[in-house]
Every structure is written in structure tokens, then in C-alpha cells.
């Protein structure tokens, strides 16, 4: 059993650039110590975390109720919130605290809140936080001055050196940079970074360094404003907008100087990466920058907001190449001494250990961890039920459609896979849901059996009988808990009908599945869906067996109408079945997919002075005093899922259709098709 603590790294920031890098560095460095989930609004951070093999959760701070449900269901041990700015993270903090997790909050920027309502909300939300972390002394000092310094620890940001993939000369040639000095500014186009100040300094820089080129990497809300500024100032020949880049180490290797004119920072990751790479820095002396560099030794600091001083310092830095190299070497040494990722990870892990020791012992049931094979429509039906269960966690989802698996996994903070074996190998699970088309059955069930995992499988259980029987035998030998999604058995109306039939059994039944053709193309083909009797009407065949007992004889007929709007369709478009039961009852079923709407789906039963009509949403019982109709109450899928989960937990097994029972319904549905093909009645019976 997995004994690692559960660590959730969460941000509510809609654009977690540096924050996201910080979180991924922690996740990668701590993956062997904790079971990690990365939570963030949909976007690049989730994609990168997923690509690194982490479970991810799409976070919506605008839906606090959903956050409360998620944290309550998943019960993390530690929740480390990362706030890009003071107004972020409060919804997640409150939800995580309410769920009993130890909550740690990292402030990535100085305290900047000026709105009284935001200040009050920030202070109130800190009641849900067990420990504050500041990414630099400047950030810590700003929070102390705001009276928010209790439980505050400073852990300076750290980065891993990232080697370039290309030689500096190659990138310079590719970008036609020539041999003039190259300035680099990499960061989000937002007021904080003050691109405007650098552009204001550029005319003076070019006067002193006529062949200089400025590269601006990044994106953000002020990108096009900056582009217009460049054009209006006549700087288009010397300033290049590069957009979002994934080759920052290459750009740093090709540049001569990093320029960071920010109005404020927490502790710039780009600057730390430049120090590690040996790229000298000229930065403003704004909070977050001033303590990072030793002026004149490991970089240069200039007064924030002073374009003239910025230009003069850039020219000075580039005027002496020997001095520039010495500063670069000192910067790299300073990074190694103070700003490594390893140091940051270890110091953060020490905080986690302290908080974990302080956490009260959790009580209550252990979560039952569920994996899904298949993330299509029927899987989502179960998703909607299982996420209501406080004792269940959907931990992993696999689907051949990678995007579909990822989207579903992000709903729950689960791992996404395209390969079942990989999912079973990498994620600890208690049970599986198998929600795949008929043609895909067999391998998933065998994988579950090999792993010793109970499984719930959606009908039909296979295309052929041999596969279903073989799996039934293996299930019986392994003693596994299984269930099959014949949810009509769980209708409360069916419970009522069983009571009525106890003393007045049905002697005649008529079933109808008169509907349209489902859109999935696999449904149109007999060798993929099995046809309407196997894929849809099987619900009514199963219900008839459940209410009237075993079937002894079957006669089927079928016809096919070619339909231009469904190219290649080869399943019968009309079919009927006549059944004889061991009880002496007889039944007939009619099915068609020719309609463009759902006309009638249900089962009619007739006994002594009693007529019953049952659908999946209502019940009519006629005993000669009118035709009263009542609606079905409750959700039968909720009931079947609850029974399966309880059985997996070792509680009373109330499952109404285990795998072996479903095989008998499948045997009946296949016999209908065989009779239609051969023109002969088929005698059937249970496996000896």
C-alpha cells in the first residue's frame, strides 16, 4: 500500500508563468517523497505537469463549492498554495483547510494590496493557512510591515541550470544578430516588468552601442502596446519581439546581458536562470531584485524607474568584456551558493515535514481509489455519481483518445493514460470501471483479473460468447467482486413490480426499443456493436430475465434497410424476438433504429387481471381501476454504483448483476441474432 503523504501543489493564478515554474521544480524534486497532484486553471501549467507524469486538477476559484467537494473527497495531507498576488488562493485555502489538510501558502510577490476589501479578505483567509513562505527577504519584509508576519518563513527561490541545446553562434546566425551586443529581456508583458522603461532607455543605449540588439521574449496583455511603442519610437530595426519561447537557455547563451527593469519582483526566476547560465544582469533595485545581486560584483543595480541610469549602466557593463566575464563568474558562484533548486526543495520539504507532524490524525474511512478504462459518455454518467461519494476517489483514467482522458482526469485531479497496463503499473487502485465499446471488451477485463482488481463493466460484456464465458470463469476462480451496468434492475419501480409478481407472475411480456440510430460509427457495424439487440435491447432482455427467470427457447427475425445517411451500416434496422421461459411465460420483443427520435423504450407485463408498463422513468399498473402512472424515484445508476463500491469495501454485497449473471443475458441476446441468421429456434440454458 502506498504510504507516501499526499501533496497538492495548487495555484489559482490564471497566468502562472514564474509561479508555475516554481511549482514544477518542487513537483519534480519531490516526486519520490510525496504523491503529488498539481492544481491550476486550465492551460499551459496543467499541460506541462501532465506531460511530466503528474496527476492534475483543473481549478476554478470562482466555484468554491466545487473546490470544497474536491478537497473533501481527496483528503490531501498537505496543500501548498502558490499566490502570484495577494488576492489569489483564498478559495483553495478555505476549502483545503475545511477538508483537514495542512495548508502552506507561498507569497511570490511583495504585499501589494491597497483595496481595503482585498486586504480584509487576505487577512481573513490566512486563518485557513498553517504556514506562510516568502520567496525572498523583500517579500517577507513587505508582509511583516503589513502585520502579516506570523508563521512566516523565507525560502528563496531556486532554479536548476538549464544547458542550451544549440551553440551561441548558431542561434546568432539563425537570427541574423551579427556581432554587436545582444540584450535580452524575458518576461510577461505586464506593467510590473516595465518594458516601457527599457524602451525609453534604448535611444541612449543605441547612441553608445549603435550595433546593439534588444530581444524581448514573452507574451502578455501589453504585448501589442509594446509593439506599437517600438514602431512609434523608430526602434523596429533594433528591438525584436520574439513572443513566447521555449528555448530561453539558447537565448541566454546567445545574449551578452540580461536586463530586468521591473518595478517589483518576488525573486525573478529568469534572473536566477541567467546567473546559473553565466549571463550578466542589469536590474532595477526594486524590491526582490536588490538583495539578489551584489552591485558591481555579481551584477548591476540601477534606481527603479530611471531610464537614464539604466542606459548608462548597460553601456558601462558592455564596455569592458573582461569585467563582464568576471561579473558573470561571480553571479554563477552566487547562484550555486544561494539559489539552487536542490536547496529550495530541501528547505520546502522540511516545512512539509514540520506541518505533517503537527497535523492531527485523520479519522474516517479510507478512500476507495477507482481507475477508469474508457472516458466516453457512459463513463461520464458514472463520473457524475462517483464524485458525489465522499469515500471514493477517481485516481486514474485511460482512454485511447488522449485528449479525452486528459480532460476527464483534470476534472478529478487524476492521472491520465492512453495505456491500461501503464495505468495499472503506476497508480495504486482498489477497483476499475470498464466503460468501452462492445468490440473493446476482453483485454480490459483480463488486465483487471491479472491485477486482482474488482471491476464494474458496462454492458454488453463482449461481442462473442466465448470471451464472456472465459472471463466469467476467471472471475469465479479469482473470487473477484464484479458488477455489470444493467441499471434497470435498480429502478425503484422494478422493486415494486417484483413485489406485484411475487404472487401473480407474468405470463406474457412485450418489450420495445423503438429509437433512432446512435451517432458513433462503431454502432453501425455488426462486428463492432453486435447490433441493437446486443447493444440496446439487452437492457429489456435482462429485465425480463430478472423478473421472470431463465429463458429456455428463442426465435428471432431481423431485417436490414440500407440508409444513405449511415454509410456502411450493416446492423439489422428491425428485429424481433420471441422467448419462452422456464416458468411457462412467453415474451416478444421488437426493436428498430429507423426512427429519428426515441419513440418507445420499455417492457409490458401481463398476469392474472394485471397489466404493467415499465420504462426507465415511470410505471403504470392497471388492475381494472384505471391506468395510474407514477414516476421512478431516485437514480438507479447511483444505486448500482453505491452497491459496487460497498462490496469492494468489504461491506454487504448487494450487487444485483455480477459478471456471471450478465453473461446469461448476453447468451440470450446472442441467441436472438443466431436464430435470425439461421431461421431456427435456439434452445438455451445456463453454463453447466
Summed up:
With 688 residues, this protein is an alpha/beta fold.
Would you write up a description of this structure?
With about 700 residues, this protein is α/β, with parallel strands linked by helices. It has 4 domains: about 5-160 and about 340-360, Glycogen Phosphorylase B (Rossmann fold); about 170-335, Glycogen Phosphorylase B (Rossmann fold, 3-Layer(aba) Sandwich), CATH 3.40.50.2000; about 370-485, 3-Layer(aba) Sandwich (Rossmann fold), CATH 3.40.50.720; about 490-635 and about 665-685, Dihydrodipicolinate Reductase, domain 2 (2-Layer Sandwich). About 40% of the residues lie in helices and about 20% in strands. The protein has 25 helices and 28 strands. Helix 7 (about 170-175) crosses helix 10 (about 250-255) and helix 8 (about 195-210) packs across helix 12. The model has no long low-confidence stretch (mean pLDDT about 95).
Quaternary structure annotation: single chain
Domain count: the total is 4
From the helix content, strand content and strand pairing, which structural class follows?
A: alpha/beta
CATH topology of the largest domain: Rossmann fold
Number of helices: 25
**For the record, what is the CATH homologous superfamily label of the largest domain?**
Glycogen Phosphorylase B
Count every beta strand, where a strand is a DSSP E run of 2 or more residues: 28
End-to-end Cα distance: 39 Å
Biggest sheet details: 9 strands, mixed
The strands making up the biggest β-sheet line up spatially as 27-26-25-24-20-23-22-21-28
What percent of residues adopt helix (DSSP H or I)?
25-40%
Q: Using the alpha-carbon principal axes, give the shape.
A: elongated
Radius of gyration, taken over Cα atoms and rounded to an integer in Å: 33 Å
**How much strand?**
15-25%
CATH class of the largest domain: Alpha Beta
Low-confidence stretches: none
Mean pLDDT figure: 93
CATH architecture classification name of the largest domain: 3-Layer(aba) Sandwich
Amino acid at each position: 500500500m502506498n504510504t507516501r503523504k499526499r501533496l497538492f501543489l495548487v495555484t489559482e493564478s490564471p497566468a502562472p508563468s514564474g509561479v508555475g515554474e516554481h511549482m514544477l521544480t518542487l513537483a519534480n524534486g519531490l516526486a519520490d517523497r510525496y504523491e503529488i497532484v498539481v492544481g491550476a486553471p486550465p492551460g499551459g501549467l496543467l499541460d506541462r505537469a501532465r506531460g511530466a507524469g503528474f496527476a492534475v486538477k483543473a481549478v476554478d476559484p470562482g466555484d468554491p463549492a466545487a473546490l470544497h467537494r474536491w478537497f473533501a473527497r481527496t483528503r490531501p495531507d498537505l496543500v501548498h498554495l502558490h499566490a502570484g498576488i495577494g488576492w489569489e488562493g483564498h478559495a483553495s485555502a478555505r476549502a483545503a483547510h475545511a477538508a483537514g489538510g495542512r495548508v502552506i501558502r507561498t507569497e511570490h510577490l511583495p504585499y501589494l494590496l491597497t483595496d481595503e476589501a482585498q486586504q480584509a479578505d487576505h487577512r481573513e483567509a490566512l486563518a485557513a493557512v498553517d504556514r506562510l513562505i516568502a520567496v525572498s527577504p523583500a517579500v517577507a519584509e513587505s508582509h511583516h510591515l503589513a502585520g502579516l508576519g506570523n508563521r512566516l518563513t523565507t525560502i528563496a527561490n531556486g532554479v536548476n541550470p538549464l544547458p542550451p541545446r544549440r551553440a551561441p553562434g548558431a542561434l546568432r546566425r539563425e537570427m541574423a544578430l551579427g556581432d554587436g551586443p545582444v540584450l535580452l529581456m524575458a518576461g510577461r508583458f505586464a506593467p510590473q516588468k516595465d518594458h516601457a522603461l527599457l524602451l525609453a532607455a534604448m535611444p541612449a543605449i543605441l547612441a553608445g552601442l549603435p550595433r546593439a540588439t534588444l530581444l524581448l521574449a514573452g507574451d502578455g496583455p501589453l504585448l501589442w502596446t509594446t509593439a506599437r511603442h517600438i514602431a512609434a519610437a523608430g526602434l523596429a530595426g533594433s528591438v525584436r519581439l520574439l513572443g513566447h519561447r521555449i528555448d530561453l537557455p539558447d537565448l541566454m547563451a546567445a545574449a551578452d546581458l540580461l536586463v530586468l527593469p521591473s518595478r517589483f519582483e518576488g525573486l525573478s526566476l529568469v534572473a536566477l536562470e541567467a546567473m546559473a547560465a553565466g549571463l550578466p544582469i542589469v536590474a532595477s533595485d526594486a524590491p526582490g531584485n536588490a538583495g539578489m545581486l551584489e552591485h558591481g560584483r555579481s551584477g548591476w543595480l540601477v534606481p527603479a524607474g530611471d531610464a537614464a541610469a539604466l542606459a548608462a549602466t548597460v553601456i558601462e557593463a558592455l564596455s569592458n568584456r573582461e569585467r563582464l566575464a568576471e561579473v558573470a563568474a561571480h553571479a554563477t558562484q552566487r547562484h550555486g551558493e544561494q539559489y539552487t533548486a536542490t536547496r529550495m526543495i530541501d528547505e520546502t520539504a522540511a516545512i512539509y515535514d514540520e506541518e505533517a507532524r503537527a497535523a492531527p490524525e485523520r479519522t474516517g474511512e479510507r478512500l476507495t481509489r477507482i481507475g477508469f478504462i474508457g472516458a466516453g459518455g457512459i463513463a461520464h454518467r458514472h463520473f457524475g455519481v462517483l464524485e458525489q461519494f465522499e469515500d471514493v476517489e477517481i485516481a486514474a483514467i485511460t482512454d485511447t483518445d488522449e485528449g479525452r482522458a486528459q480532460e476527464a482526469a483534470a476534472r478529478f485531479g487524476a492521472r491520465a493514460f492512453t495505456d491500461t497496463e501503464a495505468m495499472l503499473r503506476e497508480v495504486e487502485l482498489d477497483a476499475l470501471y470498464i466503460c468501452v465499446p462492445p468490440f473493446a471488451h476482453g483485454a480490459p477485463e483480463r488486465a483487471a483479473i491479472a491485477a486482482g482488481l474488482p471491476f464494474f463493466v458496462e454492458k454488453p460484456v463482449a461481442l462473442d460468447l466465448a470471451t464472456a464465458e472465459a472471463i466469467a470463469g476467471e472471475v469465479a476462480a479469482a473470487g473477484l467482486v464484479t458488477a455489470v451496468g444493467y441499471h434497470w434492475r435498480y429502478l425503484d419501480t422494478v422493486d415494486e413490480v417484483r413485489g406485484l409478481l411475487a404472487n401473480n407472475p407474468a405470463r406474457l411480456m412485450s418489450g420495445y426499443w423503438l429509437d433512432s440510430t446512435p451517432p458513433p460509427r462503431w454502432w453501425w457495424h455488426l462486428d463492432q456493436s453486435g447490433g441493437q439487440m446486443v447493444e440496446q435491447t439487452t437492457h429489456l432482455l435482462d429485465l425480463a430475465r430478472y423478473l421472470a427467470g431463465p429463458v429456455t427457447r428463442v426465435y428471432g427475425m431481423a431485417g436490414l434497410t440500407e440508409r444513405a445517411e449511415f454509410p456502411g451500416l450493416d446492423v439489422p434496422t428491425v428485429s424481433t424476438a420471441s422467448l419462452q421461459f422456464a416458468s411457462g411465460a412467453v415474451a416478444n420483443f421488437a426493436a428498430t433504429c429507423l426512427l429519428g427520435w426515441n419513440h418507445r423504450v420499455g417492457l409490458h407485463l401481463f398476469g392474472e387481471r394485471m397489466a404493467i408498463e415499465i420504462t426507465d422513468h415511470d410505471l403504470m399498473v392497471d388492475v381494472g381501476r384505471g391506468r395510474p402512472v407514477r414516476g421512478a424515484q431516485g437514480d438507479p445508476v447511483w444505486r448500482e454504483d453505491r452497491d459496487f463500491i460497498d462490496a469492494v469495501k468489504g461491506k454487504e454485497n448487494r450487487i444485483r448483476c455480477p459478471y456471471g449473471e450478465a453473461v446469461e443475458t448476453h447468451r440470450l441476446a446472442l441467441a436472438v441474432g443466431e436464430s435470425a441468421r439461421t431461421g431456427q429456434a435456439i434452445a438455451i440454458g445456463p453454463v453447466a
